[in-house]
Amino acid sequence: MSAKKSYEEINEKIKRGEAVVVTAEEVIGIVAEKGYAKAAQEIDVVTTGTFGPMCSSGAFINFGHSNPRIKMKKVWLNGVEAYSGIAAVDAYIGAGQLPENDPENKVFPGRFTYGGGHVIHDLLARKDIRLEAVGYGTNCYPNKKVDTIITLDDVNDAFLFNPRNAYQNYNCAINLGDKVIYTYMGILKPKVGNASYSSAGQLSPLLNDPYYRTIGIGTRIFLGGGVGYVAWNGTQHHPNVARGENGVPQTGAGTLALIGDLKQMDPNWLVGLSFIGYGATMAVGIGIPIPILDEEMLHYTAVKDEDIYCPIVDYNEGYPYNKPMDLGLVNYKDLKNGKIIFNGKEVVTTPQSSYPRARKIAETLKGWIQRGQFELTQPVANIPSADADIDFKSIPERNPGATNLNGGNRRD
Amino acid sequence: MKNKLVCYFSAAQSEQPIIYRLVKNYDLIINIIKADINPQKEGYLVLELEGDKNSYDEGVIFIKSLGVVVEPLSETVVWQPEVCIQCGACASFCPTEALNIDRDSMEISFDNSKCVVCGMCLDCCPTRAIQLHFEIKEAV
Question: Nearest CA to CA, how far is B29 from chain A (Å)?
Protein backbone atom coordinates (compact mmCIF):
# COMPACT_ATOMS: atom_id res chain seq x y z
CA MET A 1 0.00 0.00 0.00
CA SER A 2 1.32 3.35 -1.00
CA ALA A 3 -0.49 5.63 1.42
CA LYS A 4 0.95 4.78 4.81
CA LYS A 5 0.97 7.47 7.47
CA SER A 6 2.13 7.46 11.08
CA TYR A 7 0.40 9.10 14.02
CA GLU A 8 3.35 11.52 14.21
CA GLU A 9 2.99 12.54 10.58
CA ILE A 10 -0.73 13.11 10.98
CA ASN A 11 -0.20 15.16 14.15
CA GLU A 12 2.44 17.28 12.42
CA LYS A 13 -0.13 18.12 9.76
CA ILE A 14 -2.73 18.91 12.43
CA LYS A 15 -0.28 21.29 14.15
CA ARG A 16 0.39 23.03 10.85
CA GLY A 17 -3.35 23.29 10.21
CA GLU A 18 -2.97 21.20 7.06
CA ALA A 19 -4.64 17.96 8.06
CA VAL A 20 -7.46 16.76 5.81
CA VAL A 21 -10.29 15.82 8.13
CA VAL A 22 -13.68 14.50 7.03
CA THR A 23 -16.59 12.90 8.84
CA ALA A 24 -17.51 9.23 8.58
CA GLU A 25 -20.46 10.34 6.44
CA GLU A 26 -18.45 12.56 4.10
CA VAL A 27 -15.80 9.90 3.53
CA ILE A 28 -18.39 7.69 1.82
CA GLY A 29 -18.96 10.22 -0.97
CA ILE A 30 -15.25 10.98 -1.33
CA VAL A 31 -14.42 7.30 -1.79
CA ALA A 32 -17.22 6.94 -4.35
CA GLU A 33 -15.77 9.86 -6.29
CA LYS A 34 -12.02 9.28 -6.01
CA GLY A 35 -11.60 5.62 -5.17
CA TYR A 36 -9.93 4.13 -2.09
CA ALA A 37 -6.29 4.57 -3.08
CA LYS A 38 -6.49 8.28 -3.91
CA ALA A 39 -8.80 9.06 -0.99
CA ALA A 40 -6.47 7.21 1.41
CA GLN A 41 -3.58 9.41 0.28
CA GLU A 42 -5.54 12.60 0.75
CA ILE A 43 -7.51 11.99 3.92
CA ASP A 44 -5.68 12.06 7.26
CA VAL A 45 -8.49 11.70 9.79
CA VAL A 46 -12.10 10.50 9.73
CA THR A 47 -14.28 11.67 12.61
CA THR A 48 -17.15 9.62 14.02
CA GLY A 49 -19.95 10.42 16.44
CA THR A 50 -22.76 8.93 18.45
CA PHE A 51 -25.35 10.36 20.84
CA GLY A 52 -27.68 7.92 22.52
CA PRO A 53 -28.85 6.47 25.82
CA MET A 54 -25.95 4.80 27.63
CA CYS A 55 -27.00 3.52 31.04
CA SER A 56 -23.55 2.38 32.07
CA SER A 57 -22.35 5.90 32.73
CA GLY A 58 -21.66 7.97 35.79
CA ALA A 59 -19.28 10.30 37.56
CA PHE A 60 -16.82 10.16 40.43
CA ILE A 61 -16.99 13.23 42.63
CA ASN A 62 -14.84 14.42 45.53
CA PHE A 63 -16.86 16.94 47.50
CA GLY A 64 -14.10 18.26 49.74
CA HIS A 65 -14.53 18.06 53.50
CA SER A 66 -17.10 19.46 55.86
CA ASN A 67 -15.96 20.96 59.14
CA PRO A 68 -15.81 18.84 61.23
CA ARG A 69 -14.88 16.16 58.73
CA ILE A 70 -17.24 13.37 57.71
CA LYS A 71 -16.81 9.84 56.40
CA MET A 72 -19.84 9.61 54.18
CA LYS A 73 -21.68 6.34 54.63
CA LYS A 74 -24.48 7.38 52.35
CA VAL A 75 -24.72 10.38 50.07
CA TRP A 76 -27.51 11.84 47.96
CA LEU A 77 -27.49 14.46 45.23
CA ASN A 78 -30.95 15.99 44.73
CA GLY A 79 -32.27 12.91 46.52
CA VAL A 80 -30.50 10.47 44.18
CA GLU A 81 -28.09 8.20 46.01
CA ALA A 82 -24.46 8.10 44.95
CA TYR A 83 -22.25 5.17 45.93
CA SER A 84 -19.97 6.16 48.80
CA GLY A 85 -18.25 2.91 49.74
CA ILE A 86 -14.92 4.52 48.86
CA ALA A 87 -12.87 7.19 50.66
CA ALA A 88 -14.52 9.66 53.03
CA VAL A 89 -15.89 12.30 50.66
CA ASP A 90 -15.64 10.44 47.34
CA ALA A 91 -18.74 9.09 45.65
CA TYR A 92 -19.94 7.72 42.32
CA ILE A 93 -23.23 8.91 40.89
CA GLY A 94 -24.62 6.43 38.35
CA ALA A 95 -26.81 7.52 35.43
CA GLY A 96 -29.48 4.93 36.16
CA GLN A 97 -29.87 5.63 39.89
CA LEU A 98 -33.35 6.76 41.00
CA PRO A 99 -34.40 8.98 43.91
CA GLU A 100 -35.16 7.04 47.11
CA ASN A 101 -38.84 7.99 46.97
CA ASP A 102 -39.35 7.27 43.27
CA PRO A 103 -42.63 5.43 42.65
CA GLU A 104 -40.76 3.24 40.11
CA ASN A 105 -43.18 0.85 38.42
CA LYS A 106 -45.63 0.67 41.32
CA VAL A 107 -48.14 2.37 39.07
CA PHE A 108 -47.20 0.82 35.77
CA PRO A 109 -45.73 2.16 33.58
CA GLY A 110 -43.62 4.42 35.80
CA ARG A 111 -42.45 7.83 34.57
CA PHE A 112 -38.89 7.99 35.97
CA THR A 113 -38.73 11.73 35.54
CA TYR A 114 -35.45 12.20 37.44
CA GLY A 115 -32.35 10.10 38.04
CA GLY A 116 -28.56 10.11 38.18
CA GLY A 117 -28.25 11.19 34.55
CA HIS A 118 -30.41 14.22 35.27
CA VAL A 119 -28.19 15.03 38.28
CA ILE A 120 -25.08 14.94 36.08
CA HIS A 121 -26.81 17.16 33.52
CA ASP A 122 -27.88 19.61 36.25
CA LEU A 123 -24.35 19.67 37.68
CA LEU A 124 -23.02 20.52 34.21
CA ALA A 125 -25.69 23.20 33.78
CA ARG A 126 -24.15 24.73 36.94
CA LYS A 127 -27.47 24.39 38.77
CA ASP A 128 -27.69 24.27 42.57
CA ILE A 129 -27.64 20.67 43.78
CA ARG A 130 -28.70 19.57 47.25
CA LEU A 131 -25.98 17.46 48.85
CA GLU A 132 -27.03 15.27 51.77
CA ALA A 133 -24.72 12.83 53.48
CA VAL A 134 -24.73 10.76 56.64
CA GLY A 135 -21.89 9.09 58.49
CA TYR A 136 -21.56 7.11 61.71
CA GLY A 137 -18.83 9.26 63.19
CA THR A 138 -15.24 8.27 63.93
CA ASN A 139 -12.41 9.93 65.85
CA CYS A 140 -10.97 11.20 62.61
CA TYR A 141 -14.34 11.92 60.96
CA PRO A 142 -16.68 13.04 63.77
CA ASN A 143 -19.42 14.66 61.64
CA LYS A 144 -22.54 12.56 61.11
CA LYS A 145 -24.64 14.70 58.83
CA VAL A 146 -24.23 17.14 55.95
CA ASP A 147 -27.13 18.92 54.27
CA THR A 148 -26.16 21.75 51.97
CA ILE A 149 -26.27 23.16 48.45
CA ILE A 150 -23.37 22.70 46.02
CA THR A 151 -22.58 23.37 42.39
CA LEU A 152 -20.07 21.67 40.11
CA ASP A 153 -17.65 24.54 40.79
CA ASP A 154 -17.69 23.77 44.54
CA VAL A 155 -16.35 20.21 44.28
CA ASN A 156 -12.67 19.31 44.09
CA ASP A 157 -12.95 16.76 41.34
CA ALA A 158 -15.66 15.44 39.09
CA PHE A 159 -14.84 13.06 36.33
CA LEU A 160 -17.09 11.02 34.16
CA PHE A 161 -16.21 7.35 34.21
CA ASN A 162 -18.51 5.30 32.01
CA PRO A 163 -17.94 1.54 32.24
CA ARG A 164 -19.76 0.70 29.01
CA ASN A 165 -20.34 3.16 26.18
CA ALA A 166 -20.35 3.33 22.39
CA TYR A 167 -21.71 -0.17 21.82
CA GLN A 168 -20.46 -1.50 18.52
CA ASN A 169 -23.84 -2.27 16.97
CA TYR A 170 -27.04 -3.15 18.85
CA ASN A 171 -30.29 -5.09 18.61
CA CYS A 172 -33.31 -4.02 16.62
CA ALA A 173 -36.08 -4.50 19.18
CA ILE A 174 -39.58 -5.75 18.36
CA ASN A 175 -42.52 -7.06 20.40
CA LEU A 176 -43.97 -10.40 19.29
CA GLY A 177 -46.50 -10.34 22.13
CA ASP A 178 -50.04 -8.99 22.02
CA LYS A 179 -49.65 -6.25 24.64
CA VAL A 180 -47.62 -3.05 24.53
CA ILE A 181 -44.31 -3.32 26.40
CA TYR A 182 -42.09 -0.62 27.91
CA THR A 183 -38.39 -1.27 27.51
CA TYR A 184 -35.00 0.44 27.46
CA MET A 185 -35.55 0.43 23.69
CA GLY A 186 -38.65 2.56 24.21
CA ILE A 187 -42.29 1.63 23.80
CA LEU A 188 -42.75 -1.48 21.68
CA LYS A 189 -46.19 -1.86 20.18
CA PRO A 190 -47.76 -5.32 20.19
CA LYS A 191 -47.67 -7.71 17.25
CA VAL A 192 -44.53 -6.10 15.84
CA GLY A 193 -46.15 -2.66 15.69
CA ASN A 194 -42.75 -0.98 15.50
CA ALA A 195 -39.05 -1.82 15.42
CA SER A 196 -36.72 0.16 17.67
CA TYR A 197 -33.00 0.57 17.00
CA SER A 198 -30.14 2.40 18.68
CA SER A 199 -26.95 3.07 16.77
CA ALA A 200 -25.52 5.88 14.69
CA GLY A 201 -24.68 3.22 12.06
CA GLN A 202 -22.17 4.55 9.55
CA LEU A 203 -21.22 7.39 11.92
CA SER A 204 -20.77 5.21 15.01
CA PRO A 205 -17.18 5.03 16.31
CA LEU A 206 -16.58 1.30 16.65
CA LEU A 207 -18.40 0.48 13.41
CA ASN A 208 -15.72 2.56 11.65
CA ASP A 209 -12.82 0.71 13.25
CA PRO A 210 -14.34 -2.76 13.53
CA TYR A 211 -11.17 -4.52 14.75
CA TYR A 212 -10.09 -1.66 17.11
CA ARG A 213 -6.85 -1.04 15.22
CA THR A 214 -6.71 2.63 16.22
CA ILE A 215 -9.22 2.87 19.07
CA GLY A 216 -7.61 1.51 22.21
CA ILE A 217 -6.58 2.39 25.72
CA GLY A 218 -5.53 6.03 25.88
CA THR A 219 -7.27 7.18 22.71
CA ARG A 220 -8.24 10.85 23.04
CA ILE A 221 -11.88 11.47 22.16
CA PHE A 222 -14.81 13.91 22.23
CA LEU A 223 -16.74 13.04 25.39
CA GLY A 224 -19.78 14.92 26.62
CA GLY A 225 -18.80 18.06 24.72
CA GLY A 226 -15.27 18.08 26.15
CA VAL A 227 -12.14 15.99 25.81
CA GLY A 228 -12.02 12.48 27.24
CA TYR A 229 -10.09 9.26 26.83
CA VAL A 230 -10.69 5.57 26.31
CA ALA A 231 -9.84 4.02 29.69
CA TRP A 232 -10.32 0.33 28.91
CA ASN A 233 -12.52 -1.93 26.90
CA GLY A 234 -16.06 -1.55 28.17
CA THR A 235 -17.89 -4.11 30.27
CA GLN A 236 -19.52 -6.88 28.21
CA HIS A 237 -16.87 -6.27 25.52
CA HIS A 238 -17.43 -9.25 23.26
CA PRO A 239 -15.51 -8.86 20.02
CA ASN A 240 -15.58 -12.51 18.95
CA VAL A 241 -19.04 -12.50 17.38
CA ALA A 242 -20.37 -13.09 13.87
CA ARG A 243 -19.03 -10.47 11.44
CA GLY A 244 -19.79 -9.59 7.86
CA GLU A 245 -17.20 -9.73 5.08
CA ASN A 246 -16.42 -6.09 5.82
CA GLY A 247 -15.42 -7.05 9.37
CA VAL A 248 -18.44 -5.32 10.90
CA PRO A 249 -20.08 -7.26 13.75
CA GLN A 250 -23.66 -8.31 13.07
CA THR A 251 -24.70 -7.98 16.69
CA GLY A 252 -23.63 -6.05 19.80
CA ALA A 253 -19.87 -6.60 20.09
CA GLY A 254 -17.16 -4.23 21.28
CA THR A 255 -17.70 -1.60 23.98
CA LEU A 256 -15.56 1.13 25.54
CA ALA A 257 -14.98 2.38 29.06
CA LEU A 258 -14.53 6.15 28.86
CA ILE A 259 -13.16 8.78 31.19
CA GLY A 260 -12.96 12.56 31.17
CA ASP A 261 -13.07 15.69 33.33
CA LEU A 262 -16.74 16.57 33.86
CA LYS A 263 -15.95 20.21 34.59
CA GLN A 264 -15.00 20.93 30.97
CA MET A 265 -18.01 19.14 29.48
CA ASP A 266 -21.23 20.66 28.17
CA PRO A 267 -24.81 19.95 29.35
CA ASN A 268 -25.95 19.69 25.72
CA TRP A 269 -23.95 16.49 25.36
CA LEU A 270 -24.87 14.72 28.62
CA VAL A 271 -28.64 14.68 28.91
CA GLY A 272 -30.77 12.87 31.49
CA LEU A 273 -33.42 10.64 29.93
CA SER A 274 -36.64 9.07 31.20
CA PHE A 275 -37.82 5.82 29.63
CA ILE A 276 -41.40 5.15 30.59
CA GLY A 277 -41.80 1.82 32.38
CA TYR A 278 -38.04 1.23 32.36
CA GLY A 279 -36.10 3.87 34.26
CA ALA A 280 -33.84 6.87 34.05
CA THR A 281 -30.62 6.98 32.07
CA MET A 282 -28.40 9.45 30.24
CA ALA A 283 -27.65 10.28 26.61
CA VAL A 284 -23.89 10.52 26.14
CA GLY A 285 -22.21 12.28 23.25
CA ILE A 286 -19.06 10.57 21.98
CA GLY A 287 -16.85 11.30 18.99
CA ILE A 288 -13.71 9.37 18.10
CA PRO A 289 -11.17 10.38 15.46
CA ILE A 290 -9.80 7.62 13.28
CA PRO A 291 -6.39 8.16 11.69
CA ILE A 292 -6.18 6.96 8.11
CA LEU A 293 -2.90 5.10 8.64
CA ASP A 294 -3.34 3.18 5.40
CA GLU A 295 -5.89 2.13 2.81
CA GLU A 296 -7.27 -0.57 5.10
CA MET A 297 -8.39 2.05 7.64
CA LEU A 298 -10.04 4.00 4.87
CA HIS A 299 -11.97 0.91 3.82
CA TYR A 300 -13.26 0.55 7.37
CA THR A 301 -14.27 4.19 7.75
CA ALA A 302 -16.07 4.22 4.39
CA VAL A 303 -18.60 1.67 5.65
CA LYS A 304 -22.20 2.53 4.69
CA ASP A 305 -25.48 2.05 6.53
CA GLU A 306 -26.61 -0.56 4.00
CA ASP A 307 -23.56 -2.69 4.83
CA ILE A 308 -24.14 -2.68 8.59
CA TYR A 309 -26.56 -5.33 9.82
CA CYS A 310 -28.08 -5.90 13.24
CA PRO A 311 -30.22 -8.72 14.61
CA ILE A 312 -33.98 -8.39 15.12
CA VAL A 313 -34.71 -9.38 18.72
CA ASP A 314 -38.04 -9.98 20.46
CA TYR A 315 -38.26 -8.03 23.73
CA ASN A 316 -41.48 -9.71 24.83
CA GLU A 317 -39.91 -13.11 25.53
CA GLY A 318 -36.73 -13.55 23.51
CA TYR A 319 -34.59 -10.96 25.28
CA PRO A 320 -36.01 -11.00 28.84
CA TYR A 321 -36.09 -14.80 29.11
CA ASN A 322 -33.04 -15.56 26.98
CA LYS A 323 -35.06 -17.53 24.48
CA PRO A 324 -32.99 -17.96 21.34
CA MET A 325 -34.99 -16.93 18.28
CA ASP A 326 -33.60 -16.34 14.83
CA LEU A 327 -35.63 -13.42 13.55
CA GLY A 328 -33.16 -12.32 10.91
CA LEU A 329 -30.97 -9.29 10.30
CA VAL A 330 -31.80 -5.80 9.12
CA ASN A 331 -29.54 -3.02 7.86
CA TYR A 332 -29.31 0.58 9.05
CA LYS A 333 -30.24 2.07 5.70
CA ASP A 334 -33.68 0.49 5.94
CA LEU A 335 -33.96 1.32 9.65
CA LYS A 336 -33.17 4.99 8.98
CA ASN A 337 -35.57 5.14 6.06
CA GLY A 338 -38.34 4.47 8.54
CA LYS A 339 -39.60 1.06 7.45
CA ILE A 340 -38.35 -2.50 7.50
CA ILE A 341 -39.96 -5.68 6.22
CA PHE A 342 -40.52 -8.35 8.85
CA ASN A 343 -42.30 -11.59 7.93
CA GLY A 344 -43.55 -9.93 4.75
CA LYS A 345 -45.09 -7.06 6.71
CA GLU A 346 -44.00 -3.44 6.66
CA VAL A 347 -42.96 -2.26 10.14
CA VAL A 348 -42.26 1.36 11.10
CA THR A 349 -38.94 2.00 12.83
CA THR A 350 -38.29 3.93 16.03
CA PRO A 351 -34.82 5.41 16.51
CA GLN A 352 -33.42 5.80 20.04
CA SER A 353 -30.00 7.21 19.13
CA SER A 354 -29.92 10.74 17.72
CA TYR A 355 -28.43 10.73 14.24
CA PRO A 356 -28.52 14.54 13.83
CA ARG A 357 -26.60 14.91 17.09
CA ALA A 358 -24.12 12.19 16.08
CA ARG A 359 -23.48 14.15 12.90
CA LYS A 360 -22.98 17.33 14.88
CA ILE A 361 -20.41 15.61 17.11
CA ALA A 362 -18.46 14.33 14.11
CA GLU A 363 -18.56 17.87 12.66
CA THR A 364 -17.46 19.44 15.95
CA LEU A 365 -14.54 17.05 16.37
CA LYS A 366 -13.55 17.67 12.75
CA GLY A 367 -13.47 21.41 13.53
CA TRP A 368 -11.29 20.90 16.61
CA ILE A 369 -8.76 18.86 14.61
CA GLN A 370 -8.77 21.24 11.65
CA ARG A 371 -8.05 24.16 13.98
CA GLY A 372 -5.14 22.31 15.57
CA GLN A 373 -6.84 22.09 18.97
CA PHE A 374 -7.02 18.33 19.12
CA GLU A 375 -4.23 15.91 18.29
CA LEU A 376 -4.53 12.18 17.79
CA THR A 377 -3.12 9.61 20.17
CA GLN A 378 -1.76 6.16 19.50
CA PRO A 379 -3.31 3.61 21.86
CA VAL A 380 -1.11 2.77 24.86
CA ALA A 381 -2.45 -0.77 24.59
CA ASN A 382 -5.03 -2.41 22.36
CA ILE A 383 -8.34 -3.79 23.51
CA PRO A 384 -9.20 -7.44 22.72
CA SER A 385 -10.28 -7.90 19.10
CA ALA A 386 -12.09 -10.51 17.02
CA ASP A 387 -9.42 -13.15 17.68
CA ALA A 388 -10.09 -13.00 21.44
CA ASP A 389 -11.65 -15.96 23.17
CA ILE A 390 -14.11 -14.15 25.40
CA ASP A 391 -16.92 -16.19 26.88
CA PHE A 392 -20.14 -14.20 27.36
CA LYS A 393 -21.14 -15.30 30.85
CA SER A 394 -24.40 -15.39 32.80
CA ILE A 395 -24.91 -15.51 36.56
CA PRO A 396 -24.48 -19.10 37.73
CA GLU A 397 -27.51 -20.66 39.41
CA ARG A 398 -26.14 -22.27 42.54
CA ASN A 399 -27.71 -23.10 45.85
CA PRO A 400 -25.99 -21.03 48.55
CA GLY A 401 -26.55 -23.97 50.93
CA ALA A 402 -27.06 -24.12 54.67
CA THR A 403 -23.35 -24.23 55.49
CA ASN A 404 -22.75 -20.76 54.13
CA LEU A 405 -25.74 -19.04 55.61
CA ASN A 406 -24.18 -18.11 58.96
CA GLY A 407 -20.91 -17.05 57.52
CA GLY A 408 -21.89 -13.48 56.85
CA ASN A 409 -21.91 -13.89 53.10
CA ARG A 410 -25.62 -13.37 52.94
CA ARG A 411 -27.70 -10.25 52.51
CA ASP A 412 -30.23 -10.36 55.34
CA MET B 1 -70.29 10.08 27.35
CA LYS B 2 -67.03 11.65 28.49
CA ASN B 3 -65.66 15.13 27.86
CA LYS B 4 -63.12 17.54 29.19
CA LEU B 5 -64.45 20.96 30.13
CA VAL B 6 -63.08 24.19 31.49
CA CYS B 7 -65.35 25.95 34.00
CA TYR B 8 -64.65 29.62 34.66
CA PHE B 9 -65.81 30.92 38.04
CA SER B 10 -66.31 34.34 39.47
CA ALA B 11 -65.20 34.84 43.07
CA ALA B 12 -68.75 34.44 44.40
CA GLN B 13 -69.43 31.26 42.43
CA SER B 14 -66.37 29.54 43.81
CA GLU B 15 -68.04 29.18 47.21
CA GLN B 16 -70.61 26.73 45.90
CA PRO B 17 -70.17 22.94 46.23
CA ILE B 18 -70.52 22.32 42.50
CA ILE B 19 -68.60 19.04 42.33
CA TYR B 20 -70.64 17.60 45.19
CA ARG B 21 -73.89 18.44 43.39
CA LEU B 22 -72.65 16.96 40.13
CA VAL B 23 -71.83 13.69 41.83
CA LYS B 24 -74.85 13.50 44.10
CA ASN B 25 -77.62 14.81 41.87
CA TYR B 26 -76.39 13.83 38.42
CA ASP B 27 -74.39 10.67 39.15
CA LEU B 28 -71.39 11.87 37.15
CA ILE B 29 -67.85 10.57 37.40
CA ILE B 30 -65.55 13.53 37.81
CA ASN B 31 -61.84 13.80 37.36
CA ILE B 32 -60.32 17.16 38.27
CA ILE B 33 -57.46 17.65 35.88
CA LYS B 34 -56.40 21.11 36.96
CA ALA B 35 -57.83 23.77 39.20
CA ASP B 36 -56.99 27.29 40.28
CA ILE B 37 -59.67 28.63 42.56
CA ASN B 38 -59.78 30.49 45.80
CA PRO B 39 -62.60 32.37 47.53
CA GLN B 40 -61.00 35.76 47.00
CA LYS B 41 -60.74 35.65 43.26
CA GLU B 42 -62.10 34.22 40.09
CA GLY B 43 -60.66 30.97 38.88
CA TYR B 44 -61.04 27.93 36.70
CA LEU B 45 -61.54 24.24 36.98
CA VAL B 46 -60.58 21.69 34.31
CA LEU B 47 -62.88 18.70 34.61
CA GLU B 48 -63.31 15.41 32.92
CA LEU B 49 -67.01 14.64 33.14
CA GLU B 50 -68.29 11.13 32.54
CA GLY B 51 -71.81 9.71 32.69
CA ASP B 52 -74.76 8.70 30.53
CA LYS B 53 -75.84 11.32 28.03
CA ASN B 54 -78.88 12.60 29.94
CA SER B 55 -77.03 13.04 33.20
CA TYR B 56 -74.14 14.63 31.40
CA ASP B 57 -76.33 17.16 29.60
CA GLU B 58 -78.31 17.97 32.74
CA GLY B 59 -75.11 18.30 34.74
CA VAL B 60 -73.71 20.82 32.28
CA ILE B 61 -77.01 22.75 32.28
CA PHE B 62 -76.79 22.81 36.09
CA ILE B 63 -73.27 24.26 36.07
CA LYS B 64 -74.30 26.90 33.54
CA SER B 65 -77.41 27.74 35.60
CA LEU B 66 -75.06 28.86 38.37
CA GLY B 67 -73.58 31.43 36.02
CA VAL B 68 -70.36 29.45 35.53
CA VAL B 69 -68.95 29.78 32.02
CA VAL B 70 -68.39 26.29 30.55
CA GLU B 71 -66.26 25.67 27.50
CA PRO B 72 -64.80 22.55 25.92
CA LEU B 73 -61.14 22.13 26.91
CA SER B 74 -58.72 22.94 24.18
CA GLU B 75 -55.44 21.15 24.58
CA THR B 76 -52.29 21.78 22.62
CA VAL B 77 -49.19 19.70 22.21
CA VAL B 78 -46.08 21.82 22.61
CA TRP B 79 -42.76 20.62 21.23
CA GLN B 80 -39.74 22.29 22.82
CA PRO B 81 -36.94 22.17 20.24
CA GLU B 82 -34.38 23.37 22.81
CA VAL B 83 -35.09 20.32 25.00
CA CYS B 84 -35.41 17.84 22.11
CA ILE B 85 -32.27 15.81 21.36
CA GLN B 86 -33.54 14.78 17.91
CA CYS B 87 -33.61 11.06 18.60
CA GLY B 88 -36.76 10.72 16.50
CA ALA B 89 -38.50 8.17 18.73
CA CYS B 90 -41.76 10.17 18.71
CA ALA B 91 -42.33 10.16 14.97
CA SER B 92 -43.26 6.49 14.68
CA PHE B 93 -45.97 7.01 17.31
CA CYS B 94 -47.54 10.05 15.67
CA PRO B 95 -50.63 8.96 13.69
CA THR B 96 -50.87 12.17 11.64
CA GLU B 97 -47.20 12.84 10.87
CA ALA B 98 -47.39 16.09 12.82
CA LEU B 99 -44.08 14.94 14.27
CA ASN B 100 -42.08 14.00 11.23
CA ILE B 101 -38.52 12.97 10.44
CA ASP B 102 -36.85 14.44 7.39
CA ARG B 103 -35.11 11.30 6.12
CA ASP B 104 -32.13 13.21 4.69
CA SER B 105 -31.23 15.16 7.80
CA MET B 106 -33.00 12.70 10.16
CA GLU B 107 -34.25 15.80 11.99
CA ILE B 108 -37.63 15.99 13.69
CA SER B 109 -40.06 18.79 13.04
CA PHE B 110 -43.50 19.46 14.50
CA ASP B 111 -46.45 20.77 12.49
CA ASN B 112 -49.06 21.93 14.96
CA SER B 113 -51.79 22.12 12.32
CA LYS B 114 -51.57 18.34 11.76
CA CYS B 115 -51.63 17.47 15.49
CA VAL B 116 -54.83 15.85 16.79
CA VAL B 117 -53.63 15.94 20.43
CA CYS B 118 -53.79 12.17 20.86
CA GLY B 119 -50.91 12.37 23.33
CA MET B 120 -49.06 9.28 22.04
CA CYS B 121 -45.83 11.26 21.75
CA LEU B 122 -45.84 12.33 25.40
CA ASP B 123 -44.93 8.90 26.74
CA CYS B 124 -42.24 8.00 24.26
CA CYS B 125 -40.17 11.19 24.51
CA PRO B 126 -37.18 10.43 26.77
CA THR B 127 -36.29 14.10 27.33
CA ARG B 128 -39.91 15.16 28.01
CA ALA B 129 -39.53 17.71 25.22
CA ILE B 130 -43.18 17.27 24.29
CA GLN B 131 -45.79 18.60 26.67
CA LEU B 132 -49.53 18.90 26.80
CA HIS B 133 -50.75 22.41 27.49
CA PHE B 134 -54.27 23.31 28.52
CA GLU B 135 -55.47 26.53 27.03
CA ILE B 136 -57.01 28.57 29.80
CA LYS B 137 -58.24 32.10 29.24
CA GLU B 138 -56.78 34.83 31.40
CA ALA B 139 -60.05 36.11 32.81
CA VAL B 140 -63.76 35.39 32.67
Answer: 21
In this complex, the residue of B86, B101, B126 whose CB is nearest that of residue A275 is B126
* β A145-150/A186-188 pair status: unpaired
| Cross-chain residue pair B92–A53, CB shorter than 8 Å | no
CATH architecture assigned to B2-72: 2-Layer Sandwich (3.30)
Size of interface A-B (CB pairs under 8 A): 68
In whole angstroms, give the CA distance from residue A6 to residue A291: 9
Of B87, B105, B123, the CB nearest to A352: B87
Q: Which amino acid would we find at residue B121?
A: C
Q: Which residue of B has its CA nearest to A196?
A: B89
Q: Among this protein's residues, is A140 annotated catalytic?
A: yes
State the Cα torsion B99-B103-B106-B111 to the nearest 10°: -20
Measured CA to CA, the distance from residue A198 to residue A55 in angstroms comes to 13
pLDDT digits (tens, 9 = 90+) for A64-98: 999 999 999 999 999 999 999 999 999 999 999 99
Q: What pairing do the DSSP bridges indicate for beta strands B74-79 and B29-38? A: unpaired
Question: What is the spatial distance between Cα A228 and Cα A225, in angstroms, rounded to a whole number?
Answer: 9
Nearest to A206 by CA among A242, A247, A173, A235: A247
Domain B75-132 falls under CATH 3.30.70.20: yes
Q: Which of B92, B105, B127 sits opposite A356 (nearest CB)?
A: B105
Quickly count: other Cβ atoms within 10 Å of residue A105's Cβ. Answer: 15
Other residues' Cβ atoms within 10 Å of the Cβ of residue A265:
27
What string of H, E and C letters represents the secondary structure of A165-213? ECCCCCCEEECCCCCCEEECCEEECCCCCCEEECCCHHHCHHHCCCCCC
Q: A342 burial class (0-12, 13-18, 19+ CB within 10 angstroms)?
A: middle
Instruction: State whether B89 and A351 contact (CB < 8 Å).
Output: yes
Cα–Cα dist A125/A385, whole Å = 38
Q: Kindly list the residues from chain B whose CB atom is less than 8 angstroms away from the CB atom of residue A350.
A: 88-89, 91-93, 124
- Model confidence over B90-139: pLDDT tens digits? 999 999 999 999 999 999 999 999 998 888 999 999 999 999 988 777 64
Same topology, domains B2-72 and B75-132? Answer is: yes
Closest Cα in chain A to B105:
A356
Task: Delimit the domains of chain B by residue range.
Answer: 2-72, 75-132
Is the model's pTM score more than 0.80?
A: yes
Q: How close does chain B come to A269, measured CA to CA in Å?
A: 9
Q: Is B128 close to A113, i.e. CB distance below 8 A?
A: yes
